[in-house]
Amino acid sequence: MLKELGLTEYEAKAYIALIMLGEGSVREISELSKVPASKLYEVLSKLEERGFILSSYGRPMKYIARDPEETLNSIRYRYDKLITTLSRDLKSIWRTHRRLSKITFVRDLNDIMRKIRSMLNEASSIVKIIVDECSLWVEYGLLENLASLISNNIEVRIILNPRCRYLDEFRNLVGNRVRISDKANFLCVIKDLNEVLKGITGNEPVVIIYNIREIVDLINEIFDSIWSQGIDKKSL
User: Does residue 37 sit in the same domain as residue 152?
Assistant: First the structure.
């Protein structure tokens, strides 16, 4: 059972022998425990460091076992303190992970557009957008939010479908930050490279919102690929 407290086989044997002796020299402890004397100095040193035994200077040096009840109470106190601290830290990590790493489904169009507006308003460095239905952005007044991003010097990149009826409105608003691609057949908003909204806003709208790093990075790579192959609006 002492091994379950972290003692090695030699440490456990030496400790039991010293409890039986009460006090003993290296030779006496070695004879009773059958631990080689050449190993015993290191073993006893570790037992003393961990508070199981005491040593007295003299010739020969003597070792004394501490009261087992006091020793175990001390170990219990250290373990209780360790478990309390560990439990607090692990719970904090768990709660943070649950809060920061999640997937959310949204199916109501009004809620989807409200979430997009919120993401645009919260952006602090960059927003990348693929627009599947231009008319919705006009209808819900999201062009005003884009204008606010531009005025706040936040980087904006927008990919539009060539069938979009409001190409000029987007171009006039964000200039060369717009590209055209026939791959813009889904909705995607990437905020500050740490949150993504992706889905469709057709007859049965549905989006998924991610803030899991691996997924965000993957979708960002897809966006960059479409962007690099897109057509600059001013070249049309």
Answer: no
